Amino acid sequence: MVDTVEDKTTFYSKAERYWQEVPPTVDGMLGGYGSISSVDINGSRKFLQKFLGEGKGKTGTGCALDCGAGIGRITKRLLLPLFRTVDLVDVTQEFLDKAKSYLGEEAQRVENYFCCGLQDFKPEPGRYDVIWIQWVIGHLTDDHLVEFLRRCRGGLRQDGLIVVKDNVAYEGVILDEVDSSVCRDLPLVRTLAQRAGLQIVCEERQENFPEEIYQVHTLALR
């Protein structure tokens, strides 16, 4: 995929510039599709709750990480209701600043706001029960995605889980010049996860999204 990216530095800086122009709203975070937010969150909650709880092999509910968190849409509606504390990481400081007010009183349970691109982000080892990565892997080159997933693996607690939820191309890799991202097909996403030493423990397609947008798949990795 890196072959389709003219230059890694430009690839990342163009994306940063794009997001700096996006309004810090739910609609902005979802590219004008704010109306799908509830369907998205409900699907994610149903998916995630299969793994949470107590007992052998169950994922704990102590701390979650929201990657590419934006203003905290997923933190507010999915992660804070399920986890004691949450950390946010995003490349755009304005979004993280907005998150503090958007999250309301529950913001007191957010321990860290990291302003950093995921290609450079290093999760604290053994900190997280769940690392949630949604609609952001397209902003990483293949190699950087593999390296990031490896670091995430190290950031998990025992029986922790990495969840990747993202757009999936029907075939190959599609470059989006506007926001400087790529959309990969499912076999490639699976291959990159495996390269990072992760196993896919569950995979689902998100239902009830508008027909005109990419299909969206959710993968649980350990």
From TrEMBL:
SUPFAM superfamilies: S-adenosyl-L-methionine-dependent methyltransferases. One of its GO terms (molecular function) is N-terminal protein N-methyltransferase activity. Its EC number is 2.1.1.244. GO terms for cellular component: cytoplasm; nucleus. GO terms for biological process: methylation. S-adenosyl-L-methionine binds at G68, R73, D90, V91, T92, L118, Q119, Q134. Its main location: nucleus. InterPro entries: MeTrfase_NTM1 (IPR008576), SAM-dependent_MTases_sf (IPR029063). It is an enzyme of class 2 (transferase). Keywords: Methyltransferase, Nucleus, S-adenosyl-L-methionine, Transferase. It catalyses: N-terminal L-alanyl-L-prolyl-L-lysyl-[protein] + 3 S-adenosyl-L-methionine = N-terminal N,N,N-trimethyl-L-alanyl-L-prolyl-L-lysyl-[protein] + 3 S-adenosyl-L-homocysteine + 3 H(+); N-terminal L-prolyl-L-prolyl-L-lysyl-[protein] + 2 S-adenosyl-L-methionine = N-terminal N,N-dimethyl-L-prolyl-L-prolyl-L-lysyl-[protein] + 2 S-adenosyl-L-homocysteine + 2 H(+); N-terminal L-seryl-L-prolyl-L-lysyl-[protein] + 3 S-adenosyl-L-methionine = N-terminal N,N,N-trimethyl-L-seryl-L-prolyl-L-lysyl-[protein] + 3 S-adenosyl-L-homocysteine + 3 H(+). It is found in: Nucleus. It holds the Pfam family Methyltransf_PK. Belongs to the methyltransferase superfamily. NTM1 family. This is protein N-terminal methyltransferase. It comes from Anguilla anguilla (European freshwater eel).
